[in-house]
Amino acid sequence: MCLALFQAFNTMVRLSSIISFVSLALLASATPVKRTQAKIEQDLTRVDTLVTAWDNAVNAFRGNANQANALHNAAVQLNSAINQATTDTKATALLTTDMATLQILGVFENASPTLVGGLTQISEKSKSFAAIRGATAVVEQDVRTLSTSTAALLTAISAISPAEVVPQASQFAVTLNDAYADTLTNLAKSCNTYKACYCFAGVIQEHWSGVTEFSSLLLLLRPYDGSNRLIALPRFYLATPVKRDMATIQKDITNISALLVTWDNAVNSFNGNTNSANTLHTRSKALESAFASAITDTHATSNFTSDTNALTVLGQMENSSPILVGGLTQIAEKSADFKKINGTSAIVADLGSLGAAATGFIGAIAAIITDTGVIAQATQFKTTWAAAFGDAISDLQSGL
Question: Is residue 387 assigned to a domain?
Answer without folding.
Answer: yes
